[in-house]
Structures are given as C-alpha cells and as structure tokens.
Specification:
Blueprint lengths: L1 H10 L2 E6 L7 H14 L5 E6 L4 H14 L9 H7 L10
Parallel strand pairs: 1-2
Helix pairs in contact: 1-2
Length: 95
C-alpha cells in the first residue's frame, strides 16, 4: 500500500499516521512507514490513521504505563488526560 499509494496521498494533502507498535514491524516496513509519516507530516487536508500491529488493549496498557512513568496520580486520571496518552492524541474523535 505504501509503495503504491504514498505519492498520490501526499499530493492530495493526506497526512499518514501510524497506530500501534512500530518497533515490532520488520525493519523494511518500519523504514517505509517512517518515511511516509515524515513525507506527509505537514499535510493538513486529511489525517489517515494506519493501524499495523495494533491492539486496543495494548494501547490502553501503554497509555497507563506512560501515565505512571510521568507520575500521574490516580485521582488526576480523566477522560481528557487518557486521550492525551493514546496513539490518536491531538486527533478529534470521529463523528
């Protein structure tokens, strides 16, 4: 998909983002994904989230682990705060 569609997506102003554990993909695919994200990072017409090696529970676990590393107190955890730690931080919820 990256090889076939990247230039057209970039031309159309699409920003590509990866959701999931990039480090667990093959080195060749990691390189392509990183290149695609870098090439399209300033595009603002549309954001296309691609989920390779993604799991919802894993995302929640990673978010919690990062909050703990940042020293977030349990009583400070809110929906808004959790949203900041998800892969889609900064992206509006779908409507």
């Amino acid at each position: 998909m990256i090889d076939r569609e990247l230039n057209e997506l970039d031309k159309e102003g699409v920003q590509l983002r990866h959701l999931g554990r990039l480090e667990q993909l093959s080195p060749a695919l990691q390189k392509k994904v990183l290149h695609a994200m870098e090439l399209t990072r300033n595009n603002n017409r549309l954001i296309l989230n691609i989920a390779w090696n993604y799991g919802g529970r894993d995302e929640i676990i990673q978010a919690i682990q990062h909050m703990m590393k940042d020293g977030v107190a349990p009583d400070k955890v809110t929906d808004e705060l959790v949203s900041q730690y998800l892969y889609t931080a900064g992206v509006p919820d779908p409507t």
